[in-house]
Amino acid sequence: MLAGNPHSVFMGELLRRIRTSAARLLLREELAAERLASEDKMRACFEAASEAILGVYRDGRICLVNARTEEMFGYSRAELLGQPLEMLMPGRLRAAHTAHRHQYFRYPQVKPIASRNELVARRKDGTEFPVEIGLAHVDTPEGPLAFGMVSDTSKRRKVADELQRANDALRRTNAEMEQFANVASHDLQEPLRMISSYLQLIERRYSPLLDDDGREFIHYAVDGAARMKALIADLLDFSRAGTGAATYRVVNARDLVQNALANLKTALDESGAQVSVEPLPGILVDPVLFAQVFQNLIANGIKFRKDSRPHIIISAVCQGSEWIFSVRDNGIGIEPQHLDRIFGIFERLHSSEEYPGSGIGLAITRKIVERHGGRIWAESQPGIGSTFRFAISAETELASAAGGGRAS
Amino acid sequence: MSQRKTVPPKPFELLLVEDNPGDIRLIQEAFKEGGILSHLNIARDGEQALAFLRQEGTFSKSPRPAIILLDLNLPRKDGREVLTEIKADKTLRQIPVVILSTSTAPEDVRRAYDLHANCYVPKPLDVEKLVQLGKSLEEFWLSTAILPV
Hints:
The complex is a heterodimer.
Chain A: H1 6-48, E1 52-56, E2 62-65, H2 67-73, H3 77-80, H4 94-106, E3 111-113, E4 120-122, E5 128-140, E6 143-152, H5 154-206, H6 212-242, E7 249-252, H7 253-263, H8 265-271, E8 274-277, E9 282-285, H9 287-303, E10 311-319, E11 322-328, H10 361-371, E12 375-381, E13 385-393
Parallel strand pairs in A: 8-10
Antiparallel strand pairs in A: 1-2, 1-6, 3-5, 4-5, 5-6, 7-9, 10-11, 11-13, 12-13
Chain B: E1 13-17, H1 21-33, E2 39-43, H2 46-53, E3 67-71, H3 79-88, E4 97-101, H4 106-114, E5 119-122, H5 127-144
Parallel strand pairs in B: 1-2, 1-3, 3-4, 4-5
């Protein structure tokens, strides 16, 4: 290093300062390049976004668009920038939107604009389409910038409409079929009564004139008519379980069981059956319909008994938002391959000589349970016994439970 | 044990309103088998029934029935309409009306009682039950209960 020479000290100092400035310049350029790269990245994301993004300042003129906006509305960005935002909606909605926009700038906030009210947008070619919009804003030196993310909900709305139409058609068909079953059953009873009654009259009055064969023939005819009458009555019950007005109330399941037991008094006495009822909850049901559920299940427990005294246990456990009820017996049981079949209409596993009944009890039971939004199934060990379980919502608020309300 | 009153000198008059000839004959035979003493008058539809009760036209000489047996399903004037008219008529509403019907639907039952039917009886499938029905109707309405004069 050169010592003491004033000229060289000055040169050294100058060189040092130049080096520092150059370094700073380089640094500034590097930082600028980084920021530019980051900005480019942001812009790229913005342009690639799957939803249209539009921004406006307080004056309501479009100052920000992305590629999807151009695509969705059919305008180039040159046609959009600087134009009033309201150009993108049908004429009839513009005034209201202007008012909303002023309101928003007075109290800017982040919110989704709910598609409760039909939000409709308008393309360059004049066609309209439904949209959903999410609104947000940033503060800029020029004032708040509001920007919206716009989704075209045409497809979603179309699917929803189709679903609604399909549901309505299905509901109509169901109602018609149930009404048909109702009317048919009713109208079938009358001619059947004629057949049965007059055969019986013949039997009563002309029995002495008939031989054994004649009496037996009439007996089979009368018996057939009686079974048909039972079938028709069962069909009527079945269709009524599905239609018919229903009024829902919170009832203690214990009361429903007591009703069922009262109705089954004769069968209970004859069989010496013992029924244990554990603590049961209150449930939101139509009491008239739901009493049948317990009655059918208990009656089956009595009917399909082994030689020993039937013992039936009724209980309930809470599982999540549901009550699972169980009606368990010590009867003849059901083979595993039949556990589903038995819930079908007129499905019987035994001849009518072995066990009476048309085989519709469980079908009716299932219909009622399902009408209340529940489900029912059976478990069994042949020779040991069966347990019928059904699940019912534990919800006891009328508005929110499945099927709540009148005449569903 | 209830004591049967002595048989009245003149048999009671009943009005059966029923359109099905099979049902009419059935009830006649069943009542005969049951030894019913009352006389069964027949009206084939609602309009005939009301003309009979009001003793109009060809029915000017018809007797006033002690009980009316009314089928709900009638052509032209429906059984419920007939019931309503009878119970609205100051001179007719004292006559007990027994509804006979094939329907056991709770709505139908409630509606009939709502229209002031005196009772609702489902038509039995069994002839034996129909015979018993005739006997118990006569026993209750014409013997146990007192009718207005």
